[in-house]
Amino acid sequence: MLDEDLSDIPMTVAGLLAAYRSGATTPAAVIARVLEKIRERGDDGVWITVADRAMLDARLREVADLPRDLPLWGIPFGVKDSLDVRGWPTTLACPGWSRVATDTAPAVQALLDAGAVMIGKNNLDQFATGLNGTRSPYGIPRSVFDDEMISGGSSSGSAVAVALGEVPFAVATDTAGSGRVPPALNGIPGFKPSRGLISTVGLVPACRSLDCVSLIAGTVDDLATVFDVVSGVDERDAWSRPRRRTTMPAPEARIGLPEADELDFFGDDAVRQAHLAARDAIAGAFPERRQVPLAPFLAAGELLYQGPWVAERYLEFGDFMAGHPDAVHPVVAGIIASGAQYTAVDVFRAQYRMAELRAEVGRIFEEVDVLVLPTIGTTFTVAQVLADPVATNTTLGHYTHFGNLLDLCALTVPTGVTADGRPSAAMILGPALSDDLVLRVGAAVAALPHALAPVH
Fold it and tell me: Are the C-beta atoms of residues 111 and 171 closer than 8 Å to each other?
């Protein structure tokens, strides 16, 4: 057991930095608590690889020699196991594919340079394919709300580790909602920046033209702190672009809300009632509100798995699957294999349609600054997902699939609980490069009375 009682110190970036500066604790004591919490939970599917005590002691000695005013000095964090860290295995939750990385992803290196302490690599849906968190040979992480409920995916372990208070933040990914659905199902914030603001070098791609590095943390303020550290142009990343700083105060943002009748909760009245109550609170906090159509967003989302973008996954993993057919989760294999059917004609047809939808959505964002939607329309148990893996996954991505296709940035924030005790979350979306405003609006939404207290 730990000799030092750290129960009164918030497991957040801001809370730990304040405690370090006041002398209330030290990075060594915090890391010891982290390891103890992980050990006590045992094999819960949250972590694939955890640093041993000798590795962490060596890192703590390095941190001790760094300036104490670094933005993440002594802060522990997790890394989704699709990002490379030199000397660590990158598994993608597929032991047969696994290899030891020879370089560190720039996003992770920026965190280390800022004084952070990497605890380990988090579990994920295999090959980052899935929004449910059930597709990994390393176990099935469960939502912190209910052991029968899915954690969400593919950044399953990342979200659960943060929600449990094992680490204050984790670096994850988002192609179709992987950095938003798991936080929503675990009552914490998750941020998908505009594509290209965080380097994807060192990320094993799922869909190279859509992939984003995402961030998961216990508070929106912590997300903003970490985003400041990891955002930056990387000439090695073909999609890299500079961040556009915006100073608009959150209360001045024009909020877009679709008609309530356009929202689909898939027969889940408890989630519907919770979201509509949160939506009323959000509407009351922002004077400038406009009604916007939801149809073009959903039309774009339907193209993700019904269109040729899935061929990008086949391009990345098709050869491995052909040579190792028994190494891949059967549902993941089926999804990836479907990418082989598309032709160049299919690709151009889908691109033309997507250009039309992007133009239509662009006109909507001339009238509003951000759009507010549910993050998920319902929740599922592990048993429900295993019984019907494709349909349930499609439902989970109803409000997230279109984000990267339309070149949006997005933030999910907790908005309380349903009448039967499940998490409710709202998603704030903005056009590309409106990240700063989206974070400010999200912080204001999280501060409303409906905001969910940390579960851990």
Answer: yes
CB 145 within 8 A of CB 455: yes
Tens of pLDDT, residues 182-241: 999 999 999 999 999 999 999 999 999 999 999 999 999 999 999 999 999 999 999 999
Look at residue 144 in the predicted model and tell me its pLDDT.
98
221 and 254 in a single domain? The answer is no
Query: For helices 220-230 and 106-113, what crossing angle results, to 10°?
Result: 110
H helical segments located in 231-377: 269-285, 295-306, 310-323, 330-337, 344-364
- Please report, for the domain that includes residue 257, its CATH number: 3.90.1300.10
Which positions ≥6 away from 274 have C-beta within 8 Å? 415, 416, 417, 418, 419, 424
**CA distance from start to end of the chain:** 19
Q: Backbone phi, then psi, for 229, in 5-degree steps?
A: -75, -40
Q: Which residues are catalytic?
A: 80, 154, 178
Distance CA 124, CA 137 (A): 10
pTM of the model: 0.97
The predicted structure's pLDDT at residue 450: 67
Beta strands in 34-132 (DSSP E): 47-50, 76-80, 89-90, 99-100, 117-122
Q: Do 226 and 255 sit in the same domain of this protein?
A: no
d(CA 112, CA 79): 12
CA pseudo-torsion sign 113, 116, 119, 120: negative
> Which tokens hold the place of 119?
């605890």
Q: What percent of the chain has pLDDT over 70?
A: 98
16 vs 168: CA distance, rounded Å: 9
* Total domains, the chain: 2
Domain that holds residue 117: 13-230
Structural contact between residues 353 and 301, judged by C-beta atoms closer than 8 angstroms = no
* H/E segment holding residue 408: strand 408-417
The count of C-alpha atoms lying within 13 angstroms of the C-alpha of 438, restricted to the half-sphere facing its C-beta, is: 29
Strands (E), 12-134: 47-50, 76-80, 89-90, 99-100, 117-122
Spell out where 33-168 has E strands.
Answer: 47-50, 76-80, 89-90, 99-100, 117-122
State phi, psi for 421 to the nearest 5 degrees. 85, 20
Continuous H helices in 137-294: 156-163, 181-185, 220-230, 269-285
Q: Do residues 129 and 313 touch, judged by C-beta distance below 8 A? A: yes
3-class secondary-structure state, position 371: strand
DSSP state, residue 240 = -
> What are the start-end ranges of the H helices in 165-216?
181-185
